[in-house]
Structure formats: structure tokens, C-alpha cells
Design brief:
By secondary structure, the protein is mostly beta strands. It contains no helices and nine strands. It has a single domain, classed as Immunoglobulin-like (Sandwich), CATH 2.60.40. The strands form three sheets. Strands 3-4-9-6 form a four-stranded antiparallel β-sheet, with no helix packed on it. β7 and β8 form a beta hairpin.
Length: 127
């Protein structure tokens, strides 16, 4: 489409619904917390496991996206430990995978992150 002599390209993401032959299961593997030696901070380690199973009769290419928590506070530090080959968007916390899964196969993805925060701070909804 041209607008004022300039080629304008519009890209839309359209969902075509759920494909019952592609099964995605996301499970929390680890959730542990500890106090540092000085006792002023806490650390929480969180690990996730995602399994994508292709029950279709052909290979599928798909885009998988997950997100880790973000903090806009200086006293809360969130560090991605393992991204399992994902492209990581640090500003938005997105983990992006481009997957090719053969027919009747599954792909397992594991990732983890650590949250360090003051011990007197209440943190909710971070996983």
C-alpha cells in the first residue's frame, strides 16, 4: 500500500486458534529462597521447564515466547541464569525461541532466573 508516495508495509499477528496437535506444558521446576551471609538481602531462584510436543504428521515451525519478571526498583535485581538458547529481550523480559519440531517429537526447554531483594521487602506475583 502506498501513502503519499511512500510504501507502507503493515504486519499483523493473527491467531488462528488452538491446534490440538501441538501440546505445550509449562512446569515450575525449582523455587528456593535463601538469605545472604550479611542477612540484609534474600535471593530467590526460580526454574521453569517447558515441553512442546508435536503430534502432527509433519514437522512444525513455531515461535514460543515466555517472560521473566522485571523490576524497576534499584534494590531489586533480577538476573537470567539459563535461557536455553532463547533470544532475550532485556527491556521487556521476553524469552523468544524459534523451534522446528519433527512429527511425533518433543522439544524440552529449561530456563531459570534469580531475584535478589531486601529481606524486609514483600515480593508478590513474581513467578
Amino acid at each position: 500500500m502506498y501513502q503519499q508516495g511512500i510504501l507502507v508495509i503493515i504486519v499483523l499477528d493473527i491467531s488462528l486458534g488452538i491446534d490440538k496437535n501441538i501440546i505445550v506444558k509449562r512446569t515450575k521446576v525449582k523455587d528456593s529462597s535463601s538469605k545472604s551471609i550479611m542477612g540484609s538481602t534474600k535471593k530467590m531462584k526460580v526454574a521453569w521447564n517447558i515441553v512442546v510436543r508435536n503430534n502432527k504428521s509433519q514437522t512444525v515451525n513455531l515461535f514460543l515466547q515466555d517472560q521473566i519478571p522485571l523490576s524497576y526498583r534499584d534494590d531489586v535485581d533480577i538476573k537470567l541464569n539459563n535461557k536455553s538458547g532463547a533470544n532475550y529481550d532485556e527491556k521487556r523480559g521476553f524469552l523468544n525461541w524459534k523451534l522446528e519440531i519433527k512429527s511425533k517429537y518433543k522439544k524440552e526447554i529449561k530456563y531459570s532466573y534469580q531475584i535478589k531483594y531486601p529481606k524486609d521487602l514483600m515480593v508478590n506475583g513474581i513467578w
